[in-house]
């Protein structure tokens, strides 16, 4: 029986951190852009900045991780996160089918991430 490789654990932790930062920055940027009352406002430009940070993080993720692994996780995470932000901050209604779809996406992310 061999011990777990600490460098492998660190890779997974780094991947989780990068995906969480990417999804958070992108979703919060989208929220700021959507919630801005006018396009010349601080809120609009902070949203564009956050969305830009998300784009840079996405490029970093692509540089170090396989596309077939990264894209499903990123796309699914963005969909679920934007559903939650729309519901919580923008008071948008979610249908039963949207919630079921989000559950399938979360399951898909899990199965994609397990290796």
What does this structure look like?
The model has no long low-confidence stretch (mean pLDDT 91). This protein has one domain (6-113). The protein has four helices and no strands. It is mainly α and 115 residues long. The chain has helices spanning 6-35, 42-64, 67-88, 96-113.
Q: Ends: how far apart?
A: 20 Å
- Taken as a percent bin, the fraction of beta residues is under 5%
| SSE arrangement, N to C | HHHH
Number of individual domains: 1
Give the proportion of residues in helices: over 70%
Shape: flat
DSSP E strands, number: 0
How many helical elements? 4
Q: In terms of structural class, how would the helical and strand content be classed?
A: mainly alpha
How would you describe the oligomerization state of the chains in this entry? single chain
Nearest-integer average pLDDT: 91
Integer-rounded radius of gyration: 16 Å
How would a crystallographer describe the biggest sheet?
none
| Poorly predicted residue ranges | none
Layout of strands and helices, then pairs:
Blueprint: H1 6-35, H2 42-64, H3 67-88, H4 96-113
């Amino acid at each position: 029986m061999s011990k777990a490789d600490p460098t492998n654990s660190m890779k997974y932790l780094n991947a989780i951190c990068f995906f969480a930062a990417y999804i958070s920055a992108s979703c919060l940027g989208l929220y700021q852009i959507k919630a801005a009352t006018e396009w010349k406002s601080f809120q609009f430009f902070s949203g564009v900045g956050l969305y830009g940070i998300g784009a840079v993080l996405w490029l970093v993720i692509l540089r170090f991780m396989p596309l077939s692994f990264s894209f499903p996780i990123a796309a699914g995470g963005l969909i679920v996160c934007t559903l939650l932000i729309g519901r919580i901050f923008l008071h948008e209604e979610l249908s039963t089918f949207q919630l079921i779809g989000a559950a399938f996406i979360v399951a898909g992310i899990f199965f994609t991430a397990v290796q």
